[in-house]
């Protein structure tokens, strides 16, 4: 049961943006700018951006965001979808690029305590080909999911149990991106 | 030294929104919606909203956000400005309303681990007169500052030392709200 009367039965973040479109609009615009458009000099694919969001949501134990963004990442990776679960299990050994692995190490520090992002971690990502845009977008995706996760959990929004519900969400997110849901 | 080339010498979040106006725009719109406009049924003043932001930034040890939002809160509290430092020192004993004290307890749980926001904490805030809008806005302000704090710290943006710099920022934030800075 959500902590406040949301007047809709949508799950997770969708129930909150339907309840409060004034804050929902900039939240979805931020998600679209970060998870789809990205920095002009960024090399991160949409599938990789969704994977960073899923890894941070896993670290914060927010099942709704973890399951929905993992599903979006699987949809966008297509034939390489197995990378998502391999990375969620262990980003150090998953068969992802060294560049993405170095960026995920930064993302995990941002989520734990952003003051622990050292020059060495940033330099290691650059050595693997990460651009300033990649580093910026990684830090802000990780920071933004520390917000989304807390917003969804702090108000105790609905978290579906059915994996099929997330697969449908992931396909919608992968196809349409982040557009405000319409009230029923 | 910031971790990436921001091409400006503004401090904190301002350097980041100048560097990336595409993400800066929704971030400032979110701040304006949360710290100024608020929910239609909310009883929180702008000074109280800034104080919630300062308390969370203090918990996350992000000096730039702590000092600037504390300064905005002092400016907006006017003759009651001492409440800000009393609350930052100890929210349990500061001479603030019981309603704000109960909401700050929720905000601190959101920042630490949002899954610890219990029905009891929410009910305690309601008993002190908090509305659904107050609870929503408190949770989202706390969550949003977990993002802003991590964005500012994760990229190692400039943090001025001079208290006068923050007093000027606080007056500007208290007067103009959150509008994107113009490039020099």
CATH topology of chain A: AhpD-like
Largest sheet of chain A: none
Query: What is the chain-wise order of helices and strands of chain A?
Result: HHHHHHHHH
Helix count, DSSP H or I runs of 4 or more residues of chain A: 9
Largest interface chains and counts: A-B, 47 and 47 residues
Q: Determine the oligomeric state from the structure.
A: homodimer
Helix content of chain A: 55-70%
State the separation between the terminal residues of chain A, measured CA to CA: 20 Å
What ranges of chain A have pLDDT less than 50 throughout 5 or more consecutive residues? none
Structural class of chain A: mainly alpha
- CATH class categorisation of chain A: Mainly Alpha
**E-strand count of chain A:** 0
- Can you say what the CATH homologous superfamily of chain A is? AhpD-like
Rounded to an integer in angstroms, the radius of gyration calculated over CA atoms of chain A is: 16 Å
Share in β-strands of chain A: under 5%
- The total domain count of chain A is 1
Question: How much is the average pLDDT of chain A?
Answer: 95
Shape of chain A: globular
Q: What is the name of the CATH architecture of chain A?
A: Up-down Bundle
Give a verbal description of the structure.
The structure is a homodimer of 184-residue chains. With 184 residues, chain A is mostly helical. Chain A has a single domain (12-176), classed as Up-down Bundle (AhpD-like). The first copy, chain A, is built from 9 helices and no strands. Chain A has helices at 12-19, 21-37, 46-59, 63-77, 82-89, 98-113, 119-127, 132-154, 163-176. The first copy, chain A, is globular and about 50 Å long. The two termini of chain A are 20 Å apart. The mean pLDDT of chain A is 95. At the A-B interface, helix 2, helix 6 and helix 8 of A face helix 2, helix 6 and helix 8 of B.
């Amino acid at each position: 049961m959500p902590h406040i009367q949301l007047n809709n039965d949508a799950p997770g973040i969708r129930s909150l943006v339907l309840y409060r479109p004034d804050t929902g609009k900039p939240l979805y615009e931020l998600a679209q700018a970060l998870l789809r458009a990205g920095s002009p000099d960024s090399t991160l694919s949409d599938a990789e951006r969704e994977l960073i969001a899923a890894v941070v949501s896993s670290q914060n134990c927010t099942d709704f965001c973890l399951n929905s963004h993992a599903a979006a990442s699987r949809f966008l990776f297509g034939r390489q979808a197995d990378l998502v679960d391999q990375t969620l299990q262990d980003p150090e050994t998953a068969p992802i690029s060294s560049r993405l692995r170095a960026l995920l190490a930064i993302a995990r520090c941002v989520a734990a305590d952003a003051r622990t992002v050292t020059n060495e971690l940033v330099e290691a990502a650059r050595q693997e080909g990460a651009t300033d845009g990649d580093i910026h977008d990684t830090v802000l995706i990780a920071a933004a999911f520390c917000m989304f996760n807390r917003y969804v959990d702090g108000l105790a929004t609905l978290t579906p149990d059915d994996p099929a519900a997330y697969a449908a969400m992931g396909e919608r997110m992968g196809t349409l991106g982040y557009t405000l849901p319409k009230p029923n």
